[in-house]
Amino acid sequence: MTNQSRMALRQSPLQNLTRRHLLLAAAFVAILSGFSTMRVEAAENSVVAVVNADPISRDSLATASVQRYGTDVLDNLINRHLIMQECKRRGLGVTTEEVRTEINRVAKKFGLNVESYLQLLNEERDITPDQYSREIIWPMLALRKLVADEVVVSQDEFNRAFVSQYGEAIKCRMVMVQDKSQATQLRAQAVAEPSSFARLAKEFSEDPTSASVGGLIPPIRRYMGDETIEEAAFGLKVDEVSELLPVGDHWMFLQAVRRMPASQPSPQAMPAIKEQINDRIRDEKMKTAASQLFAQLQEQAQVVKILGDPQASAKHPGVAAIINGQQVSISSVAAECIKRHGESVLEGEINRKLLTQALAKAGKKVTNEDLKAEIERAAISFGYMTDNGSADVQGWFDAVLEGGPGTREVYIEDVVWPSVALKKLVEDETTLTQEDLQIGFESHYGPRAEVLACVLSDQRSAQKVWEMARDNPTDQFFGQLANQYSIEPVSSSNFGKVPPIKQHGGQPSVEKEVFQMKPGDLSGIIATGDKYIILRCQGFTEPIVSDFEAVQEELSSVLIEKKMNVAMSLKYDELKQTAEIDNFFVASKEIPRVASGTR
């Protein structure tokens, strides 16, 4: 998603209503003693939530989930079906125990037990244990079995891997620059004076990591990567400088620092070392072979995607895709979508239900013209306009839908409609008073106070600094105090100088004090939260605009938008707090289990 679309969502409480951008906290689930069983049974049947006595069915949740995520989920299902079909053709299978064993092995690699590892996946990558086992571990194990006969570790491969890990290594310094003529000159200096190599690396090398330590790089070993660099390094004597070596669009040269002799593992350790090296090589070869096989299966497969194609759907009702003659039903795609995304999609459906109920109660409707106007407003507000100044709607949609799932229809339903609905609910109670306009004018166009500031963490320190500032009333001395004592980075590093303070900017205690001061005045100690602020007034700027009528129209538009956003947020909070919501889907969620077999 683009930065513009992210910014768009920050402009109103609409962000609290969207499934894809910022999800609300999970809907309130009151699980009282004696009602848990009833709610689990409700979830297993047709109702997944009840909002103010109005039910949301599992069918409607399935439809909404497929509409938003069906394409991505179907692609994943197709890939898994291809692997399953090939396993079936060859008479291979992956058992539940094999899946559990592999998850345990992976968890141990990270130094975690299985529970901690699965919890980490869930929290950090939003992957449930069931999803991890079915969509990641099972396909990987299946592909490994399919290519197992093709993967053999040769003696030569083992020998090369052993040498790269335990063989001789060369500790080197490096200088890397993009310009070849500069590289030639620097190398000549290094050859003439080898002791200057570290200095040259620090001053001129364009690789910041090695330059910061005088050009030192990790030891170079055999069979680790670029054979040209390895040969150059192993051909050097200590302090000798290599020829120029091309690396991408840069040039580099090396200096050998010392030769590190080969390690000689004990005979007792060799069996474990052999097993570890062989496993690593086999894993790498299996990954390559599995990727090649999977690409081959995809290339050879006959796949017909029906989901999203109205004509194909009419010919094959209830079918999402046909894979090598085998049908994948829409119901199976829907079930998968609900497994992965049901909770978040249901939140959106609950929000929509709340707004729909509120609109009906208020006797209001959201029309297509309302939606069109909101889209155009959003497009223009972020600079998407045509040459004649009208909204570039297509450009706006291209921006907000870029890089993410979803369609124009989904975006309108999840983002635009809720925003318009909320505006409808608060439009009658959102008005501007003359006081609002006056405050807004002073805040946007009025004078700013230029001050020096010192921020302290406790009153005792503040009292000490205030007394010193009072006894030596100059800007220079106050700046030195701020540099020495202020705990706020900007005022400390700039010797007290902070951005000018405007009226009605959200700091009432500070603003009240500073706009009563004259140039050269020292404020009292201003307590705000857990901080204590001392100010020294340097003067006031001239008002940006003095003619109120010249900016009244633009100012009114800005202020009404801000006031509307606040009212929308409050209205939404009110709807949530006063609603009776039973979310059976969340209440009935079982502790996820590792998937079995080839589901």
Major β-sheet profile: 4 strands, antiparallel
- Looking at the structure, the CATH topology of the domain at 447-542 is Chitinase A, domain 3
**Highest CATH level, the class of the domain at 447-542:** Alpha Beta
What is the second-level CATH architecture of the domain at 447-542? Roll
- In total, the number of strands is 13
Strand content: 5-15%
What is the count of helical runs?
A: 24
Rg (CA only): 34 Å
**Biggest sheet strand line-up:** 4-3-6-5
- Roughly what percent helix? 55-70%
> What does the average pLDDT come to?
85
> What structural class is derived from the secondary structure elements?
alpha+beta
- Spans with pLDDT under 50 lasting ≥5 residues? 1-44, 590-599
**End-to-end Cα distance:** 32 Å
Overall body shape: flat
How would you sum up this structure, described in words?
Helix 6 (129-147) crosses helix 12, helix 15 (368-381) crosses helix 17 (408-426) and helix 17 packs across helix 23 (548-578). Among the domains are: 168-260, Chitinase A, domain 3; 447-542, Chitinase A, domain 3 (Roll). The protein has 599 residues and is of the alpha+beta class. It contains 24 helices and 13 strands. It is 56% helix and 12% strand. The strands form 4 sheets. A 4-stranded antiparallel beta sheet has the order 4-3-6-5. The chain has a 3-stranded antiparallel beta sheet with strand order 2-1-13. A 3-stranded antiparallel beta sheet has the order 7-8-9. The radius of gyration is 34 Å and the shape is flat. It has helices at residues 3-10, 36-44, 58-90, 96-109, 114-125, 129-147, 155-166, 180-192, 197-204, 208-211, 227-234, 270-300, 310-315, 330-362, 368-381, 393-401, 408-426, 434-445, 459-471, 475-485, 489-493, 508-514, 548-578, 584-587; strands spanning 47-51, 54-57, 169-177, 216-221, 245-247, 250-260, 303-305, 319-323, 326-329, 449-456, 526-528, 531-540, 581-583.
